[in-house]
Design brief:
Layout lengths: L3 E2 L3 H6 L4 E6 L5 H12 L3 E9 L3 E4 L8 E4 L3 E8 L10 H43 L1
Antiparallel strand pairs: 1-2, 2-6, 3-6, 4-5
Length: 137
């Protein structure tokens, strides 16, 4: 069974309570979810709360004169998993997030510096062309 971590602001807030949120298959039981989380992340599960979110109804039309109808998006099953004190899951670790942000910002700085140097070169070439034209007259 594959459990997928859910990365949202709400789930990051749940980390203070040592609770992590996962998307799980709709047919997964609490026991199967517990086993999957323990195997995938090498942690000890203390408690599991499971909920199913019903899919939203979506309107559709099959053309200008056809009768419109409704269909539904898929249901989603979430598992709130509370871990034993001291256990953490690295997927949700804040230190990893900070490192990613710093590396992204440094790469964006290098891009900005590169674009600035290109713009500066363009200005220099325009100025040299203007001076050459003035010299010809």
């Amino acid at each position: 069974m594959l459990v997928i971590p859910r990365a949202t602001e709400k789930t990051y807030g749940q980390q203070a309570k040592n609770t992590y949120v996962f998307y799980v298959p709709e047919n997964g039981s609490k026991q199967a979810i517990r086993k999957a989380v323990e195997e995938q992340f090498n942690v000890t599960v203390k408690d599991i709360r499971v909920l199913t979110r019903k899919g939203k109804s979506i309107r559709y039309s099959k053309g200008k004169h056809a009768y419109p109808g409704t269909t539904f998006r898929r249901d989603k099953k979430l598992a709130y998993v509370t871990l034993k004190d001291g256990d953490k899951i690295k997927v949700f670790d804040d230190s990893n997030e900070g490192e990613e942000k710093s590396s992204k910002s440094s790469s964006s700085r290098t891009r900005a510096e590169a674009s600035d140097s290109k713009n500066q070169k363009k200005k220099e070439t325009k100025e040299t062309k203007k001076t050459e034209k003035k010299g010809e007259k």
